[in-house]
Amino acid sequence: MPQINKDVSAVDKMSIYMQTGKKMFRGLLKKPFLKKASGILFVGKGTSITHKGNIYCGKMLNLKITLKFMV
After folding, report:
1. Please, is 11 exposed, middle or buried when counting C-beta atoms within 10 Å of its C-beta (0-12, 13-18, 19+)?
2. Residue 67: which pLDDT band, with cuts at 50, 70 and 90?
């Protein structure tokens, strides 16, 4: 598992964890509507996915901010 550099301040680490947690939560909400998904799904703010039932995901998928994903 990747680790954060020890020189990063506690405030910055908390910010990273909060942002990552939000993306994981959005992924949990979208994941049940995909055809097949395993592992962690990170979904950025404003991401739009159409035809969710046609998408297969592997162990990890990272959808960036304001991405429009049309299948």
Report:
1. exposed
2. low
